[in-house]
Amino acid sequence: MKLGDFKLERYFAKHEFTTPYILCASDCESMQLGELLAMEPGAQDRFSSLRLGYTDSLGNMDLRQAIATLYEHITIDQVLVHSGAEEAIFNFMNVSLNPGDHVIVHAPYYQSLGEVARGVGGEVSEWKGNPERGWELDLNDLERALTERTRVVVVNFPHNPTGFLPDPEFVHELSALSDRHGFIIFSDEVYRGLELDPSHRLPAFTDVNDRSISLGVMSKTYGLAGLRIGWIATRNKQIFHSMAGFKDYTTICSSAPSEFLATLALRHAEAITRRNLNIILANLDRLDRFFHTHKNLFAWERPVAGPIAFPELLRGQVGDFCADLVEKAGVLLLPGTLYGPRHNNFRIGFGRRNLPEALERLEECILEY
Ligand SMILES: Cc1ncc(COP(=O)(O)O)c(C=O)c1O
Questions:
Q1: Ligand 1 atom at shortest distance from the alpha carbon of 159
Q2: Nearest 5°: CA angle at 157, between 94 and 290?
Q3: Contact at 8 Å (CB) between 76 and 225?
Q4: How does pLDDT run across 311-323, given as a tens digit for each residue?
């Protein structure tokens, strides 16, 4: 299997731990271990007495139970825990595709969603969001792109990097199309729960369509990326068993401390999500003011969900702009060219508490533009 460089991750590898202000993080503010353990009396003692052997390959039972509560029709034996969402993407593409199969990916996309499919011999085409219409997807475009060999359609709502979220009707129409044509929907829902208005939350695809796969993770909505705990939830028995078997060749099982901490966090999912949404909402108000002041330089549309957005740079090349910012202001933005050559946009993240300082540095630097 041959994989191209993961451009976005290589960019982070270069800058993430040396640039003072990360203004393009895709996750929410993390917390200290002690803060998480303090959420429940006795958690500290239970954590200390945890045994550090191998764990259940499907995922710890309590953890799977906590994950199942995030869905309507999912039981514990329909949840398979992975090391991050990334492992689940890798394993899903490996078990579901054969060389020559056609995969359609909601674009722009987090690179592994297309790259791994390509690596296993899939032919990948893009289903592009329309920037003129808030990055909306058109089901007619999808229908036109379908072929006899289309095996998987990948969607990502709320969307990285644009924050796009369709309405529930769209989800049901896409599900019906999947039943008519036979393709499987792989639904990356790692930002589910971060809708600015909770009434906009979509049903999980796995609850709507019994052949589809929903992908979740502790990293984004809960800000606990360091746990490296992700999962798939699916009623598709064939995919579930193939993925469970494939995992024997990747990680076998997850880390016991991480599983314990993820279970604890999910028991307090609502409180953690509320805390993160409060950070996002306060930061978005600041960004609205900032982008209004600088509307000659940037095109900004307030997203409806998630901790990231994809504003356009109206003058100059976004790659040069971002490089300049790192060097002169110590602020990291992510050039849209890492998502594809045509995007003169950049990813901005607003799930972190230090956004006000980062924005001040950015503002000082752009005065020259
Ligand atoms: C849309 C999307 N899917 C999957 C992942 C992978 O998540 P993790 O790094 O927690 O495995 C990311 C991470 O940025 C993402 O943005």
A1: 1
A2: 130
A3: no
A4: 999 999 999 999 9
